Amino acid sequence: SIYVYSPEIIPTDSMRYSVTFEFNENGAYQRHISDGGRIYYEFIDESERNPALDYFSPYRMVYAPKTHQFGFLNGEYRVNDRIKISGQFSGSKLDLNTMNQGDPKNGGSYTIGIQMDSIEFGPMMMSLEIRDWNRSNEYASMGRENDVRQVRFWNLDSTISKGIQESLIQSEIVFNRIGTSQFEVARLIHGNSDRSRLRFNQEIFHKRFKNSFFNYTTVKQHKKSFYRSNGRLQINTKGYSPFISVLTEDESYSNRFQKLGGGLNVNLGRWQFETGVDFRTDELYIGTGSWENESDDFIGYVNYRSLSEKGWKQNIVYKKRIKSSSSNASYDYSLIDLGMGYNQAYKPFQWEIQARKEESFSEERAIVYDSVGAGLGQYRYDPVFNTYISDVNGDFIAYNVLTGNREPNT
User: Fold this and answer.
1) Is 52 exposed, middle or buried (0-12, 13-18, 19+ CB in 10 A)?
2) What are the structural domain ranges in the chain?
3) With bands split at pLDDT 50, 70 and 90, how would you rate the model's confidence at 110?
4) For labelling alongside 227, which of 63, 133, 150, 336 has CA 20 to 30 A away?
5) Distance (Å, rounded) from C-alpha 278 to C-alpha 318?
């Protein structure tokens, strides 16, 4: 059966129920707030459910004690000083209910890899890794095995840890006293989803261009694609280092942004100064190959640090963002952070002063009351005063819900 929220209409041929919903990651109902400020639950068809959202059920799942067994075997074989073959085989057994006769979930995982390290080609040194990692649908690890950046690197909605095959070829080339280049080609298969990824990272060690880099990542899935590029070019000349930076992201049929910036670093030993500006543009996809401007940002910043030989130190940070959006809402932001102090070795006296002012936005919250049954809540409704009153035997519980409206806050 499916429950339907309909407080205004009372049909004569149907029965009405007072139902309490419980959180259930495999549930079929989604929580909403009605125009009258009441919480209700809507049935969502299985084909339309988003795994990133919370779902509820008109019942509570109670699990008996469970058992989880896990084991693994790993090893490596070194062909020579620079080439080795490694592998790991893991198995798991998960029984969610030890009190019944149901079959436990048996799963397995294997990882096979080949690593080649420090192969010299004239002024270059190269390393290469080939790896294949496969986890079955019933596999259950004891702890985290995924890279903490899995969601971002693969452009996923949420992390996945079973029923997955991940293969990659990764190479790194080090140019003597110049820089390092990293290449990666990878593939991720999960259910009906097949994604491919290409990554390239370039860092420069040469003192003239130190702190310069370029990173590029692209992920393709069926007809969708995502790419991100981030670069910085800095030229160092006797304490003065001008730089420019570029950052772009583009997710097909969704959104994209571009940020361009530049500035100057000054490092004169005990006196350091940095200033710069960034320009950012955000766009939304509106269909038929067209994009709509969502917002434009201008960001400026100044950082100043100094430390005298007599122990006096200063630290000044100022940031300002001016934002214009299609909604005409004001989301400007500013920050000033001042620090001053005195600290010298072998001196019995030291002091420090910190001052900070930040102008940002706080999101408004609304209190919504949900009926959970007589005696199960912490509030009751008083029709005389048209308000909810604290009562340990009440019918309602309260939720704090973000409204989406933002107000300036200093």
Assistant:
1) exposed
2) 1-62, 65-236, 237-349, 359-410
3) very high
4) 133
5) 14
The set of residues, in sequence order, having a beta carbon less than 8 Å from that of 184 and lying 6+ positions away, is: 168, 169, 170, 171, 197, 198, 199, 200
Other beta carbons within 10 Å of 210? 14
* Tokens 């999101």, located at residue: 363
Segment holding 200, helix H or strand E: strand 193-204
299 by Cβ neighbours in 10 Å (0-12 / 13-18 / 19+) ranks as: middle
Cross-strand partners of 174: 125, 180
Q: Give the Cβ contact number of residue 332 at 10 Å.
A: 15
Q: Collapsing DSSP states into helix, strand and coil, what is residue 209?
A: helix
Q: 71 is written with which tokens?
A: 């084991």
pLDDT digits (tens, 9 = 90+) for 325-376: 877 777 788 999 999 998 887 778 888 899 998 877 777 777 788 777 777 7
- DSSP output for 248-310: EEEETTTEEEEEEEEEEEEE-SSEEEEEEEEEEEEEEEEETTEEEEEEEEEEEEEEEEEE-TT
Residue 376: both structure tokens together: 């199960």
CA distance 234 to 96: 56
User: Within 10 A of 48 (CB to CB), how many other CB atoms are there?
Assistant: 7
Please give the C-alpha separations between residue 99 and each of 66, 104, 302, in angstroms, as whole numbers.
Answer: 9, 12, 65
Task: Map residue 197 onto helix, strand or coil.
Answer: strand
Tokens read off for 74: 């790993």
